[in-house]
Amino acid sequence: MKDNKYRILVLSDLKEKSITALNYAARLGNEINAEVEMLYVKAATELAQTENPLLAMRIFSEHCCKIDKEINQLV
């Protein structure tokens, strides 16, 4: 018998509606034995309003650490 492994992809901006969708996907994943993966993307222009590349990289790094902590708390 073929072993079907399902995957659920949740695209998120970490706002209230996205968190609700992630919770729903997690429950559905448990019911059908599926992997749940989440993708968070933010436009670089929304974060760094500077032309200094070193400062922009620092801002991106700090934002990544902050978002990583938020996602870990959700999990």
Please provide a written account of the structure.
- The chain is α+β, with helices and mostly antiparallel strands.
- It has two domains: 1-41, no CATH class; 43-75.
- The chain is built from three helices and two strands.
- The protein has a two-stranded parallel sheet.
- The longest helix has 22 residues, at 53-74.
- It is elongated and about 50 Å long.
- The mean pLDDT is 86.
Name the overall outline. Answer: elongated
Ranges where pLDDT stays below 50 over 5 or more residues in a row are none
As laid out across the biggest beta sheet, the strand order is 1-2
Q: Give the topology string: H per helix, E per strand.
A: EHEHH
Gyration radius over CA:
16 Å
Oligomer: single chain
Instruction: Count up the domains.
Output: 2
Largest sheet: 2 strands, parallel
**Average pLDDT reading:** 86
Tell me the fraction of residues in β-strands, as a range.
Answer: 15-25%
The total count of strands amounts to 2
**Global structural class:** alpha+beta
